[in-house]
Specification:
132 residues; three-stranded antiparallel sheet
């Protein structure tokens, strides 16, 4: 049991490569910005600028993060109130779960995996049907 705790601590006290996305943020009628961020950071951008003003594109690139510093980095960039509103008042525990999920190479986040499983199991039911 002790070994699992040690390896967990070693896991989060290192730099890791995770995929990044390009977020196109429409700040106002005349200003659009492009930023490359980890996927979970788009939740903050959507909270700040509105869901309809943030478009996300997949990128083949990866970004380097230090998991135990991500919550503090986001708080420094956007403010504690905004980060807590998006990820909860848990001192970064929920964010750490998301980050650890992204660090597992070759695995999709749980929501995407569940959606993919549903689509693979029921292709005949969704065929020809439009979902909105």
């Amino acid at each position: 049991m002790q070994n699992n705790q040690i390896s967990h601590k070693e896991l989060v006290h290192s730099d890791y490569q995770i995929r990044e996305v390009e977020a196109v943020v429409r700040r106002d009628a005349f200003t659009t910005i492009h930023v490359h961020v980890p996927p979970y950071e788009t939740n903050i951008l959507r909270n700040l600028f509105g869901r309809e003003n943030v478009t996300v594109f997949e990128r083949p690139n990866k970004t380097t993060i230090t998991p135990e510093q991500e919550y503090d980095r986001l708080c420094a960039k956007y403010g504690h109130e905004v980060v807590a509103k998006v990820f909860g008042e848990d001192d970064g525990d929920r964010l750490m779960e998301i980050v650890e999920g992204l660090m597992k190479e070759g695995q999709l986040p749980a929501q995407e995996k569940a959606l993919e499983g549903t689509l693979a199991q029921e292709p005949s039911e969704t065929k020809g049907a439009k979902k909105r």
